[in-house]
Amino acid sequence: MKLIYALGNPGEKYQHTRHNLGQLILLKYCQKYNISLANKDKFSARVGESNKVIFAQSTGFMNLSGFPLQRISNFYKIDPKDILVIHDDLDLKVGDYKLQFDRSAAGHNGIKSIIDQLGTQAFYRLRVGIDHPKNSPIPEMLVEDYVLLPFRPEEKQIIDSTIDKILPELDEIISS
Asked: How many Å apart are CA 131 and CA 55, to the nearest integer?
């Protein structure tokens, strides 16, 4: 059993923000394969399943992402090495992404919560670039505000193209 877990914040207000990029990717993947995610209160998450893979996203806020992931992984007896977390990353340019294993949180509060709850950082991460505000037209903006902005139209085109590249790679990750 594997778990694909996407980070983001709940509600319409955050749906199209940089910080919800992980959830956007997961939703696109689930739409492609007609995998429905249903609210599961016992996990505080939306969860779906297909071919021994659990797909989930928290219904709570980013900084508490570890609690639902831990509940899901405990319930389904999923080892951390079989978990892939998809999330936004300030240290990568828009359109760049990296699959990595056993990395520190590097300042990402959602990842920090997961590491704290799992007691390990030995899980996979798909880091997808949102760039840093210092490289944007508003370099003085605080990171906390920047991650809650939508992508600019030219960035949105890049993100859409990036998601198109990521979806087949998710197939490979899932089948490995």
From this structure: 26
29 phi and psi angles, rounded to 5 deg: -65, -45
> Could you tell me which of 82, 93, 39, 104 has the C-alpha nearest to residue 174?
82
Q: Write the burial class of residue 121 (CB in 10 Å: 0-12 exposed, 13-18 middle, 19+ buried).
A: middle
> Cα–Cα distances in Å, from 34 out to 47, 77, 84?
13, 25, 20
Residue type, 36: S
Task: Tell if the pTM clears 0.70, that is, is over it.
Answer: yes
**Regarding beta strands 124-129 and 83-89, do their DSSP bridges make them parallel or antiparallel, or are they unpaired?**
parallel
Question: Catalytic residue positions?
Answer: 19
Note the pLDDT tens digit of each residue in 8-62. Answer: 999 999 999 999 999 999 999 999 999 999 999 999 999 999 999 999 999 999 9
How far apart CA 122 and CA 107 sit, in angstroms, is: 17
Q: Which domains does the chain have, with CATH numbers?
A: 2-175 (3.40.50.1470)
124, amino acid identity: Y
Q: How far is CA 176 from the centre of its chain?
A: 20
- Phi first, then psi: give them for residue 2, nearest 5 degrees: -120, 160
